[in-house]
Amino acid sequence: MNLLTVNNLNVSFHIKGIELAALIDVSFTLNRGERIAIVGESGAGKSILGLSIVNLLDKPGYIKSGSVKLENKELSKMNTRQLQEIRGKRIAMIFQDPMMTLNPVLTIGAQLVEAIRSHTRISFKDARNIAIEKLHSVQIASPERRFDQYPHELSGGMRQRVIIASVLLLNPDIIIADEPTTALDVTIQAEIIQLLLDVCHDNSMALILISHDLGVVSRVAERTLVMYAGRIVEEAPTLELINDPQHPYTQGLLNALPQMSLPGQRLNQIQGNMPALNDRPSGCAFHPRCPYATQKCRSEQPNFIYNGISSVSCFLVEDMLEEENSEEDSLDIEYATFHDEGQL
């Protein structure tokens, strides 16, 4: 059984009497201990998907239809009290700005102890010992001293380590990390990513990494989902996706990496911008920016095509596969004819 199953998830925002679709028919699975990444430009729907999994959407956002199951439990239909039993204990979330998570008027220790005691019935002393142990496990020096400090007294990297420690308090099955290194410098980013990897490996936790940085994704994720305008447009094992991207959007993201340009050259970029929720194009939403778009792309939405170990939503790939299959059929017919004639 899959640990997490998201099936045909649709999320909308109801604004001034208008329904705006943010996620459209999103489906994927996550196994226990597996690490996957969700990538795409800003506005693709990555963070909305992360929030939807634990139903942290604020009004006017809501889950319109579809299913989010943690093993056999349907999360999308749970009330607030039921979800509180899941959040933190089974699924924990790391946000890109730790100050969104940490309360600036409470000490680090007070917040960690509160998180533990809200889910378990243990003494303050035992909760304090657990908190200090977790702070030590994320390589925070002098955890006893940090326990009594306030968030503003810590650096950005140290605050993010505190958040990771808070995630570990209840040993969840899944960590959702939403751009966890965005506000950090490159050196600290590498340390935090390695820490996340170690934490997931040592505790057999599954990870959903939300990122726009394919360089980071290549180091962390075993499988990657590419999102565009609220849809998943490609899904593949990470190395396969990086070495042989199928969707033109994925190709554009990879070509835009700095290492894909020679020194002194302008960086490659995808022309145009991600469409707004109220201005999503007809057909394939990527067609206004796609160099291979046809009239069919402008009027019809492509289905997912399974190509070996990858899946992609693109008419270009569909046509190429049909052509390859047609050629194989032709060769089979020619071989059969030749074989039959040889028997005569």
Automatic annotation (TrEMBL):
<dbReference type="GO" id="GO:0015833">
    <property type="term" value="P:peptide transport"/>
</dbReference>
<keyword id="KW-0067">ATP-binding</keyword>
<keyword id="KW-1003">Cell membrane</keyword>
<comment type="similarity">
    <text>Belongs to the ABC transporter superfamily.</text>
</comment>
<dbReference type="InterPro" id="IPR013563">
    <property type="entry name" value="Oligopep_ABC_C"/>
</dbReference>
<keyword id="KW-0547">Nucleotide-binding</keyword>
<dbReference type="Pfam" id="PF08352">
    <property type="entry name" value="oligo_HPY"/>
</dbReference>
<dbReference type="GO" id="GO:0016887">
    <property type="term" value="F:ATP hydrolysis activity"/>
</dbReference>
<dbReference type="InterPro" id="IPR027417">
    <property type="entry name" value="P-loop_NTPase"/>
</dbReference>
<keyword id="KW-0472">Membrane</keyword>
<dbReference type="InterPro" id="IPR003593">
    <property type="entry name" value="AAA+_ATPase"/>
</dbReference>
<protein>
    <recommendedName>
        <fullName>ABC-type dipeptide transporter</fullName>
        <ecNumber>7.4.2.9</ecNumber>
    </recommendedName>
</protein>
<dbReference type="GO" id="GO:0005524">
    <property type="term" value="F:ATP binding"/>
</dbReference>
<dbReference type="GO" id="GO:0055085">
    <property type="term" value="P:transmembrane transport"/>
</dbReference>
<dbReference type="GO" id="GO:0005886">
    <property type="term" value="C:plasma membrane"/>
</dbReference>
<dbReference type="Pfam" id="PF00005">
    <property type="entry name" value="ABC_tran"/>
</dbReference>
<dbReference type="InterPro" id="IPR017871">
    <property type="entry name" value="ABC_transporter-like_CS"/>
</dbReference>
<dbReference type="InterPro" id="IPR050388">
    <property type="entry name" value="ABC_Ni/Peptide_Import"/>
</dbReference>
<dbReference type="InterPro" id="IPR003439">
    <property type="entry name" value="ABC_transporter-like_ATP-bd"/>
</dbReference>
<keyword id="KW-0813">Transport</keyword>
<feature type="domain" description="ABC transporter">
    <location>
        <begin position="6"/>
        <end position="254"/>
    </location>
</feature>
